[in-house]
Amino acid sequence: MRIKKTVEKLVSQYHTRNPLEIADRMGISVTRDPLGDIQGYYILYSGIKCICINSEIEDMNEIRVIAGHELGHAVMHETERCMFYPNTLFSRDKTELEANRFAAELLIPDQIILDNPGMTKSQIARLSGYNERIMEFKRIK
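Now predict its structure.
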């Protein structure tokens, strides 16, 4: 529940679920650079929080998932360096699981699930525009 409460507080404070907008308003530097097989990363550099997203990724929903994941690290794992590889959504590492959960809570509001009873996780993910894998990290109150 700690992650859900943290996300709810940010959404309430910034009036958006867009991780790029939240990062900007929090003063977190977000850049786009070619990163090869790394999708994105978060780093604290000289006291400045930085998120970098692979510039080769063009799908805006994929960018939001990566940004949400990295924003989760910036909020919950401030001093750790964190890389988002294509298999990060399959990771069992505690910090990666928490960042995945943060992204899911941010990008998939409870209300979309409550407004669509009977829909499968896959259908909810598609309705929201995201890969169904993100639903594995979503929790309902």
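The radius of gyration is 14 Å.
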